[in-house]
Amino acid sequence: MNTNYRLTIRYDGTKYRGWEHQPDTDMTIQGKIERVLARMLELPEGEVPEVISAGRTDAGVHAENMIANVWMDTLKSPVQIRDYCNLYLPEDICIKEVAVAGERFHSRYNAIGKTYCYTLYLGECKPTFDRKYVWQPPLPLDVPAMREAALLLIGEHDFASFCGNARMKKSTVRTVDTIDFKREGDYLRITFHGNGFLQYMVRIITGTLVEVGQGKRTPESMTELLAAKDRKKAGATAPAKGLTMMKVDYH
Predict the structure, then answer these.
(1) Which of 11, 18, 140, 151 has a beta carbon 3.0–4.6 Å from 93's, enabling a disulfide?
(2) Pick among 3.40.190.80, 3.40.47.10, 1.25.40.10, 3.30.70.580: CATH of 2-100
(3) For this structure, is 58 an active site residue?
(4) Considering 26, 58, 83, 180, which one is annotated as catalytic?
(5) Considering only CA atoms, which of 110, 122, 95 is closest in space to residue 182?
(6) Is 3.90.1720.10 the CATH number for 113-249?
(7) Per residue in 76-116, pLDDT tens?
């Protein structure tokens, strides 16, 4: 019987071209998982089950709890599916949990919120062991000024200035509920929660907040930046390696 399964996935995106499979490479998260599931299901060559994720993370971005769903006809239990996938997937992709989902569950369309975390390294020496998961921007940073700027981005706004897709046809209005800052030793973790995020949006906001911290912009300039709806006026896009998708919310 064809059943809808919900997957919770953790991955290190360093080596990959993002989540979504692409015709010119096999180095995508979706592609790796689909090929393992096709092997498990003993499907004909070239046929794979479609694994639909809650979001399409970009090349180099990581995930702690990406949610996906896939329809499959298998006698294996959810635990057996999980264990099979983890046996054959690369070591930088892990299926944390498999569960039977309702027929109407869709990982993307049913999502009502997402949490991302961007990690900055503020130490004076190089982050040798964490270098693939943090960004070390030029110091010093005025973190209180960054917090002040972030407060002006909270709420429902047109975030066109923070959208990396210049050909975006759909609405660029999004709601950002919180932007929290937490200092842990040499690490500054900026956590974003909202109802959805545009392409590169968290990374562009982070890059812009860093410019505020460096004194290149004032916190108050965020209001003008939102009104401009012009990507060229925002800051540089922060490197992908510092970003991790942490959680997806559902009713």
Answers:
(1) 11
(2) 3.30.70.580
(3) yes
(4) 58
(5) 122
(6) no
(7) 999 999 999 999 999 999 999 999 999 999 999 999 999 99
